[in-house]
Amino acid sequence: MKVLVEYTLRFREVTGKALEEVLVNDGSTLNDLISALYVKYGARFMEEFNNPSGDLIGGRILILVNGDVVSDLSIKLRDGDKVTLTYLTSGG
After folding, report:
1. What is the pTM of this model?
2. 28 in Cβ contact with 76 (< 8 Å)
């Protein structure tokens, strides 16, 4: 199945892309997608996920699936889903 991945900020710098369509197996989870992107883009990609808690989701990373914030990497993806990899922002 095809999943559209949107990259923002540093993810865009690491991948060199704003958007890409990624083929994943039926029944793939968000974690499976991130693992496939790690294989494709290497350690620099995974370094973006480093945070004090040791979790992939937490710290500064924000992941959205079809516009909804996701906090569980085990969710199953569906054909045509849009996954956005971005960062929490703050300021005033």
Report:
1. 0.88
2. yes
By percentage, how much of the chain surpasses pLDDT 90? 66
| Structure token pair of residue 49 | 């996920």
DSSP string spanning 39-75? Answer: HHH-HHHHHTT--TT--SSSTTEEEEETTEE---TTP
Give CA–CA dist 65/5, Å, rounded. 9
Convert the pLDDT of each residue in 34-74 to its tens digit.
Answer: 999 999 999 888 888 776 666 666 567 899 999 999 988 99
CA dihedral (58, 51, 64, 35) in degrees, to 10, reads -120
Question: How many residues are listed for the chain in this entry?
Answer: 92
Amino acid at 62: L
Residue 53 tokens, joined: 């808690």
Q: In 3D, which of 37, 41, 33 has the Cα closest to residue 1? A: 33
